[in-house]
Write a structure and sequence with these properties.
With 235 residues, this protein is α/β, with parallel strands linked by helices. It has nine helices and eleven strands.
């Protein structure tokens, strides 16, 4: 598969690196360098980040937070992470623009499909923060939505595992990895690759998803170069 334009989803938890909370500066730097290398290949890149390293709305609501306010806190956490990545990219000379789903200038520009595409076509990384701007939607769903909107060839889901398995490999040593799997098979097997809303959006709009281990340095560019690492989820 040729990747002209991708939506890269990065989990907030992976930004913690060796820490228990917040942002590991070393991990942030590694991500920025890998993204710059990918952009140098001519790939247009937009990025949606999670916020689980700072606050997760679902866990907040289970501890007594109002769900809507909890999700709004989670959206702000994604903005903090995106600001950190924007700063790291700028520091190594990679042009980027930060968009937010909720109006909050001068932190970032209000997101629109057209502005994000314009930024990518000018060689900038489009960082799209704030989730969908609505409560009750995960950042996986935001990634699927933005990937479809910006007409990406694929959504790259950078995680802590190296693909999709028959079961959780951290809990089941007999779990085996899929090189590729269809969206329908994910439904049938009840695999938790993304939440159902995100999976349905990708399936109905034919947006392939590549699940891979982003924590191993260089993997982003290996996927772009066509190496068969991770798992391709397709129609």
């Amino acid at each position: 598969m040729q990747f002209k334009r991708i939506l890269l989803k990065l989990s907030g938890e992976s930004l913690m690196g060796e820490k228990q909370y917040g942002i590991d500066e070393k991990r942030l730097q590694e991500y920025a360098e890998q993204i710059r290398e990918a952009a140098a290949k001519g790939v247009q890149i937009s990025i949606v980040m999670g916020g689980g390293n700072i606050f997760r709305g679902m866990s907040g609501s289970s501890k007594g937070f109002d769900r809507v306010k909890g999700d709004q806190m989670g959206m702000l956490a994604t903005v903090i992470n995106s600001l950190a990545l924007s700063s790291a990219l700028t520091a190594i000379g990679q042009p980027n623009r930060l968009f937010t789903a909720i109006r909050m200038e001068p932190v970032g520009e209000l997101y629109s499909k057209w502005k994000a595409i314009e930024a990518m076509e000018q060689g900038q990384i489009a960082l799209i923060a704030g989730g969908t701007g609505n409560p009750f939607f995960t950042t996986d769903t935001a990634s699927a939505l933005r990937g479809i909107e910006i007409e990406a060839n694929a959504m790259f889901k950078g995680t802590r595992v190296d693909g999709v398995y028959t079961a959780d490999p951290e809990k089941d040593p007999t779990a085996t990895k899929f090189n590729s799997i269809t969206f329908d098979e994910i439904y049938k097997r009840g695999l938790k690759v993304m939440d159902l809303t995100a999976t349905t959006l990708c399936r109905e709009n034919n947006l392939p998803v590549v699940v891979f281990d982003m924590e191993r340095y260089g993997n982003l560019n290996r996927v772009i170069d066509g190496e068969e690492i991770g798992t391709l989820v397709h129609l």
